[in-house]
Structure formats: structure tokens, C-alpha cells
Amino acid sequence: MTTDRLMVLDLLVSVLAAAAWVGAGAAAAARRPRTAAALMAGALVASPARAGSVLALAGAGWWFVQEKVTIALPLLLTASVVAAVTAGPRLLAASRAASEAGRDAARSPAVVVPLLGAGYAAAAGPVQTFLLGYPAEPGSALILLAVVAGAVLLTWRAMTPRVPLLRAATAATAVAALAGGALTFLPAATAEAATPVAATAGAVAPATAEGGHDMPGHDMSTQASAPVRPVTDLRGPSAPAPGGTVRRFTLTARTATVTLSSGRKVAAWTFDGQVPGPPITAEQGDLVEVRLRNADITEGVTLHWHGYDVPSGEDGVPGLTQEAVPPGGEFVYRFVAAQTGTYWYHTHEVSDIGVRMGLYGMLVVKPRGSATTGVDLTLPVHTFAGTTVVGDHDQPVLQEVAPGTPVRLRLVDTDNTPHRFTLAGTVYRLVAVDGTDLSGPGPLSRAGLRLPAGGRYDLAFTMPSGPVVLRVDDRTEAVRLTTAASGPGHGPRHGTGNGAGNGSATDDAPGAERTAGPTARSDHPGDVTDAEDAAAAAGWPELDLTRYGTPASTPYTSRSRFDRRFTLVLDRGLALGDGLPIYAHTINGRAYPHVATQVVAEGDLVRLTVVNRGRDTHPWHLHGHRVLVLARDGRAPTGSPLWLDTFDVRPGEVWEVAFRAANPGLWMNHCHNLSHADLGMMLHLAYEGVTTPFHGGHGG
């Protein structure tokens, strides 16, 4: 059983134990001794079962079993024993006596309070998991004990006016609660007061390999060995690489009403009045110059080049590498197109809202001198106004392609959550991930491709004699490629059976490269979906990227000597934000801006371990660097090396990745579910000696 499923099982057992104990107490209070006895019997089964699920998690190597062993389990088992010893005999006697006296005996405090107390103790486990979160420290343990004790005292007092040692017990509970709160929240508040945000020097507090200071702004004396450079000096060049050309673009951010392919009109935030924004294309070695103007986005706007390792001053992070561009303002970005592949750009100011509303576009860089042959489609998938769209198409993109034509589909997930893709009607290869070619990609069919938020997959195949259909999330037909011979009414073959439908295909000549957006055509397809084909595709197994392709040499491995090691524990829980406790998405128990900064020196080989303690999937994204996957859940990849800029850390997973610190600057390192980042799940990676003249925070 996977760690994720064991986590679900443990949660289910803990909830059942809590429900059974509370139900037994409630039934006893309602003078139903037999029901209470049956529920108590169930609770006495569920409580040891909880211990079994914790042991199973320990056997699976789950990182956080310690908190269950030291806090949740002792609390549950102790309360269960107390309830069984004190309430059990009385409840059994009451259930055997079919009389009013027996029913009255069942609702005595000696029965009800221990049963409900065991329920409160059982509920403390899920409270620790979902509310207090990581790390399990003495402060959180004291808070849990105080909550359970307080609930027991309130229940006891509600049932009888005479509670032995009530004042002493209440005082002890209050002291435990205050001590727990102080241990949990005061250290962060003290660090905030001691380390104010630096407005003119330093981006973030330096951290050791496993922890450090908490706030934006750092003391440059800790970096005396490194030359001091402002991030504003780390800009792109003014000339292309030898043989390259200058490619200039102007993007104007403004609100507009966009029309989807169905004719539906949607209010949006746009670049140049369209969603997605104009595609930016270049050849390797070209100088890309983009002038960003803001017409009327009152929140401000920037451009971040997702997955593209631009100089830090071009990275588009408001408050760190530049100020957000206000209405009426502009900012010019310049960088050499050194990396080939599929990328995208988006605003990083209030990005959770801005990207969702449409402030994004595509960036594609091809090798110098490469000729476009066949069909090359860039397909950004986005949930726009509650509808899954490809480009600006809320209906399938239709294109006629001659058999034998090379086809490349560039899939881009611009949403906050992963999407599952299936390609029916042909054998294909997954040739690139996050812009980097894979080694020895083998033929694929009947496979589900899970694409993380922010990630990109490039699929390549030769057009067969029948239709090819790309589906998103097993329900939305995104693209249908047809041939003159098959026509749009013929369904996909080669593994999916016959489709059905009618409609017209586009008459664009094959060979053109396009982004599915305002520049591409999509006529109304009519009924081109096939429920049986979609249902079959939904059952296709998910491709494991760590086993796909063939091994190849890499500049470093898990056995290399690393200069820095960092661990990030991703979770959900109470944390300090803006001086007040909030329910945040946390890193190592803290929420931005209180998360310790990762400080590196240029040339360092860095190993990063990312662990998901919670129940949400977190697409992890480091700016300015590609990472090499070393292991997932302790298992090294057996296929192609994986160089990623965004990787999904699912519940319970442990990812180990590495990168060479070869791009000096100040960088964001965050969850690319942008709503999670907005609620605290982000931090900085800072090179020694690099400072910022900006406020050091982040507006998005």
C-alpha cells in the first residue's frame, strides 16, 4: 500500500475511533446503555487499529510518524484505557439491567465523562494533523493537552456542579494552554521584531543548511566573503549571441472582454486584449526584448519567464527583482534565448488572481537554423471562467493533417492544479519535459499523462491514416486531428475503437506552427466526442516518468558531494502571518515571510529534499534553475534523467532533487498552486552578496 493510501487509512481509523467514543458518550448521556456499549466496543477495536495504522506508516518510512507515536497515540491509548476501566463495567451493568435505574446509571458522569474524554483525545490526532501541523513540538503538544483537558472539564461541569479539584485543574489547563501558545508563536514574533524588513539592502534572512532566520532583510556582515551586487545589476545583455538576431515584442496588460471559440464572452485580464497573450518565439542565441506596458491593471503587473533561466534582474518578481509595473508604467526585459523548448510567461504580481484571469502567454525557443516541418501546435490548458479551455477554445481544436506528416503537440498546464492528458489514435513519444529533451523516449499508447501545474510535455508522432484525439482530464476533447481520407466524422482507431461525430475541420495548410489561441482556427465541431472512447481512456494507467526513457550520464548524482543541503516540509496548519496566527500553507511549520531563506554561494552543488506532510498536492517550482531528480520516495529514476522546473509533490511523497548554483541572484522557491503560495507556501533562495533595493517582500 502506498504512503498516500496509508495516510488516508490512518485518518479514517482516527476519525472512526473519535466518532465511536463520542457516540458512546452521547448514547450514554441519552440513557441508551446498549447502544453506548456497542459503540464503546467499536471504539475499543478502532483505537488499537489506529496504533496498527501508525505502525504501518512507520514501516513505510513516513517521515512524520514520530509525532503520532509521541503525542497522538499516547493520548488516545491512555484515554481509551481510562474509559474502558472506569466507564466500561458501569456501562455493561447498565446495559444488562433493563430498568429505569440502569438507564439512569448509564448517564452518570462516571460513565459519560470518560467516554467523551476518550473521544476528545482521539480527535486530537486529526487536530494535530490538520490544524497545528508540522513540526510537532512541545508547544503544540501542550496546546492539544490543554484543549482535551478543557473539553473534559467543561463536560464534567455541565453534568454536575461538583467537580473535584475544579479550580486547580482549570488553572493547570490554562497554564498549559498559555505555555503552548507562547512556545508556538512567540519565537516567530520575536524573530520578526528583531529582524525588520530591509528596504535597501538584502533580500532575505540567511539560513543554514537546515534552517535559519525568518524575515526579509539580512545582515550583509554574514556575507563578508562575497562581493556585494544589487540584483538590479544582474540584467540581460544588449546584444544577441553570435549568429543570433534581436527579437522585439511589446505586451500591453489591460482588462478586456475576450470571446471564446463558442462565442461566449468573458471578462479577463489580458496581454494585448487576448488570452493567452501573444506567443513569443525565438531561435537559440537570439536576444529577446519585451517591453511590458500596463494600461489599466490596478494591482500592477510583471512578466515571469516560467522555467526559463533568465538573469535574476529579468525574473519579474515584484518587490525582489523589480517593482510591479503600475498603470501607465512600463518595464523592458532582455535575455538571450539560450534554452530551447516549450516555456511560458505570466504575471507574478497578485499572480493567483492575475494568471487565473488571463495574464499569461507562451514562449517557444527552437534550435538555430531548424526548419519547421509538419504540424507544431502549442496547447496551453487553462480553467477560464469555470470552463476548461485550450488557448481560447472552449470547443475542440480541429485540424486536417495529411497522413505521414510529423506532428508535435506542446502541452502547457497554466492552471493551479494538475491535468491528465490522453492521446488516442496513434503511437507517440513524450520527447521533452519542461523544455528539456528526454533520453531515449520509447513509444507510448494507452497511457495517461499527468502534467503538473506550470509544467510542459512535448508529444511527437507521425500522423496516421485515421483521426487522433487529445483529451484533458478524460472528459474534455481538446484537439482532434483528422485526415482528408478519414474526415472529421471518423473516430480514432489504433486502440480506442471507433469515434463518431460530424463537423468541419480547419483548412489550414500543414506545416505551420501555432498556439491554440486567437491566431488559430476552430470551427464548431458538432458531436465529435465518443463516450466509450473517453471511458476507455479514463482507465489507462498513468505514465511513471521516473521509469520512462533510457538512462544517460548526468553531471552529478545522489552520490556526489553536496555543498548545501536543504529540507522543505510542506504542510497546512496554524502559522504566524503579518503578526497574527493564520491557517496557512506552510514550509517547515512557517508561512511566508517567516520561512528561512536558502542561502547559497555561486558554484555550490545543492541538494533539496521536499516532503509533503499534508493532503494537498504541491507543484514545486524554483525560479532560475532546473533541478535534476535524484529520487522519489527513496527510489532513483531508472529511465531518462529528469531535468525539471516544476514537479508535483503528492501527499506523503518525498522528492530529492539537486541543482548547481550557477545563476546568481535572488529567486523565489514556491508552490505553483498560486493560491497555496498566496497563503504562505513560498520562500527565497539567495546567493551570497546579492542585495535588492526593493522592499524584499512579494506582492503575489
Biggest β-sheet, characterized? Answer: 7 strands, mixed
Given the structure, what is the number of helices?
Answer: 11
Shape: elongated
How far is the N terminus from the C terminus?
A: 38 Å
User: Roughly what fraction of the amino acids lie in strands?
Assistant: 25-35%
Q: What features would you describe in this structure?
A:
With 700 residues, the protein is α+β, with helices and mostly antiparallel strands. Strands 12, 13, 15, 17, 18, 20 and 23 form a seven-stranded mixed β-sheet that branches. Strands 25-24-27-32-29-30 form a six-stranded mixed β-sheet. Strand 21 (468-472) and strand 22 form a beta hairpin. The relative contact order is 0.11.
Structural descriptors:
alpha+beta; 700 residues; 29% strand; 6-stranded mixed sheet; single chain
Give a quick summary of the entry.
By secondary structure, the chain is α+β, with helices and mostly antiparallel strands. It contains eleven helices and 35 strands. The model is unreliable at 191-224, 487-512 and 517-529 (pLDDT under 50).
Please describe the topology of this protein.
Blueprint: H1 3-29, H2 33-59, H3 65-86, H4 88-96, H5 100-106, H6 109-132, H7 138-159, H8 166-194, E1 207-208, E2 211-212, E3 229-230, E4 246-259, E5 265-271, E6 277-283, E7 287-294, E8 304-306, E9 330-336, E10 341-346, H9 351-357, E11 360-366, E12 375-384, E13 387-390, E14 397-400, E15 406-413, E16 419-424, E17 429-433, E18 436-437, E19 449-451, E20 456-462, E21 468-472, E22 476-482, E23 513-515, H10 531-538, E24 564-577, E25 580-587, E26 598-600, E27 605-612, E28 618-622, E29 627-632, E30 643-644, E31 646-649, E32 654-660, E33 666-671, H11 674-678, E34 682-687, E35 690-691
Parallel strand pairs: 3-35, 4-7, 6-11, 12-15, 12-23, 14-22, 24-27, 26-34
Antiparallel strand pairs: 1-2, 4-5, 7-9, 8-10, 10-11, 12-13, 15-20, 16-19, 16-21, 17-18, 17-20, 21-22, 24-25, 27-32, 28-31, 28-33, 29-30, 29-32, 33-34
Helix pairs in contact: 1-2, 1-6, 2-3, 2-4, 3-6, 4-5, 6-7, 7-8
